[in-house]
Amino acid sequence: MKKVFLTLFVLAGLGGIAQAGGKYVIDSAPAPMVPAGCYDAGFEFGAFAAGIFPDNEHIDDEIGGGISLGYFFNENFGLDFSAAFYATDSEVQNYTLDAVYRFPINCIAPYILAGGGLHTNGETEGIFRFGGGVDFRLFEGTSLFADGIYNILGGDVEDYTIARLGLRFAF
Fold first, then answer.
1. How many domains would you assign to the chain?
2. pLDDT tens-digit profile of 115-130?
3. pLDDT tens sequence across 31-63
4. How far apart are CA 73 and CA 61, in angstroms?
């Protein structure tokens, strides 16, 4: 009985559509993956809290934070300059420039990054770094991001990982 009722319900629905008439246009162009305004070209300012997690015991695990300024050439590719400070015994600071490639899906964008810069901790060392994260657009032009970045240092200072959580503001 359920099958009969379901069949009649579907046929009645199809009959109603057939009687409605009118033209139907099928658009073969795919819908954009990113709604307008989620990820556009332009500048972004960020502020973040961060933790530093060294490979050895030369530097303690500590918290810190920083700011960033980025420019995206399109919805996918951009450059991001950041300055971060950590409350270790001798105050670790790093200043970096990263190439960022994001993969936007609606208003969520996983991303990867790679770059370099300077690490200071009483002495200055070069950094090569790579990592990944995700950016969640909360409102138009405002997003929450989280990422993890592995830092490889030159010289005698051990490598370390940083984890960041912050907000970005597109302008």
1. 1
2. 999 988 878 889 999 9
3. 545 456 689 999 999 999 999 998 876 667 789
4. 35
CATH code for position 70: 2.40.160.20
Helix (H) or strand (E) holding 42: strand 42-54
The burial class, CB within 10 Å (0-12 / 13-18 / 19+), for 76 is middle
Question: β-strands 42-54, 108-120: how paired?
Answer: unpaired
Distances (CA, A) of 112 to 9, 100, 128, 148, 170: 50, 6, 14, 10, 19
Whether 22 is in a domain gets the answer no
4 lies in a domain? no
Alpha-carbon gap, residue 78 to 145, rounded angstroms:
15
**Backbone angle region of 51, left / alpha / beta, with phi > 0 → left and psi within -120 to 50 → alpha:** beta
Percent of the chain with pLDDT over 90: 54
**Residue 56 counted as domain residue:** yes
Helix-, strand-, coil-residue percentages of the chain, each rounded to 5: 10, 55, 30
pLDDT given for residue 38 in this prediction? 86
**What pLDDT sits at residue 3?**
42
CB of 119 closer than 8 Å to CB of 84? no
Q: Is residue 129 part of a domain?
A: yes
Q: Which domain holds residue 141?
A: 42-170
